[in-house]
Amino acid sequence: MFVDKAQILIRSGKGGNGAVSFRREPFIPQGGPDGGNGGRGGDIIIKADGNLRTLMDFRYKRKYEAENGEDGRGRQQYGKDGKDLLIKVPVGTIVKDVQTGNILADLKENGSSFVAAKGGKGGKGNVFYKNSVRQAPNFAEAGGASRERTIELELKLLADVGLIGFPNVGKSSFLSVSTNANPKIADYHFTTIYPNLGIVSLYDNSFVLVDIPGLIEGASEGLGMGHEFLKHVERTKVLIHVVDVSGSEGRDPIEDFETINSELKTYSEKLASKPVIVAANKIDLADDEALERFTQYAEKKGYKVYPMCAPINEGVKEVLDAAYQALLRYEEENEPEEIAVVSEPDEDPDYRDIHVSRENGCYVVTGKQLRKIFDSTNFNDTGSLRYLYKYIEGKGAIQTMLSMGMKEGDTIRVFDYEFEYVDE
Ligand SMILES: Nc1nc2c(ncn2[C@@H]2O[C@H](COP(=O)(O)OP(=O)(O)OP(=O)(O)O)[C@@H](O)[C@H]2O)c(=O)[nH]1
Ligand SMILES: [Mg+2]
Q1: Which is higher by pLDDT, 29 or 392?
Q2: Which of the residues 180, 198, 266, 300 could staple to 220 if both were Cys, CB 3.0 to 4.6 A apart?
Q3: Is the overall model pTM greater than 0.90, yes or no?
């Protein structure tokens, strides 16, 4: 199967903790604070790379982590920043947050990139907290949390023109003579099982042609490999409908033509309204009467028919010219499709939330920002403890617990720290 979607788990680096440290110097009994800052955690960056074609690699590696920042140290030594992690994806990849369903980025150009998970900030060392009243702060800031999220990568096939038709009618043969691509060509159905892209160079221009696996009746309901690939066809701008006009497999070319058209229509109106160039292939096997009958039929319906013998490159140039003209017209008349990207803040949406619950008679308080403040707390220092308490109170958690029935003397648990509630 052609892999054009992948889910991966990414995690940015945690920021390093700031250090609590005091100068120790001979003959100076009370040195000042000298704890350095922690380093920044590495970001997860996703970047479009023109050398990649598929999302295949993401089938084998699903978890991506950036480096944590180093903790600060004494003597005002800073912790090293964590290294960013660069994830390369093919041009045309869309990045989605699985939880919110938001599209975070549409990486349309080679080299464009975006930070999918920002690393935590480095925590400040205790030297930072020194001021005229507080000469010896014995606490430091914990590093910022890492960010973990599951994202979905989806590769849009950025093809301009799509080749459609029944199996074995000569689509791959056409692709092979008109582009640099080297698709497999063989005399059986479904030789092509995933879309092949090729670049057509025409005069001074070029466009991308995609060879879609053969469609059959019922494709719009998922028969054959239809459904999977009609989705790709939907993103092309112009279609080349290849018909075996010789009826070499015993089918009637007019019926073939109508069957495919009605499949497109059933799948979506949008698909059915795309400009179509009709290539009547295998003319070497067809008698004049058969070609004439088909041409008249299709032209009456408003299509222009191009007779062709793909393997020997006969009539191919005319089809490409017509497709290119239709493409130029299409682009003139239609705005390029823009994908709405949602810009989200760097932190988790629930970063500032605080939660209260009851467990075994205890009141339990949790929260992501709370975790960071908790980690910055020195439990031997009243000032530091007080700050933690004020934060919990400021978030309304004490009020919530009171309304849940908390009384003087009940236990409040914050991560692995427990204290008694005292009515002040
Ligand atoms: N005689 C003749 N044979 C052709 C012509 N075009 C293609 N063929 C043959 O038809 C067979 C199928 O050609 P492909 O190009 O693989 O057809 P396809 O539409 O890509 O087929 P699937 O990938 O199976 O859907 C091969 O044996 C080709 O050599 C043609 O114009 N004349
Ligand atoms: Mg093929």
Answers
A1: 392
A2: 266
A3: no
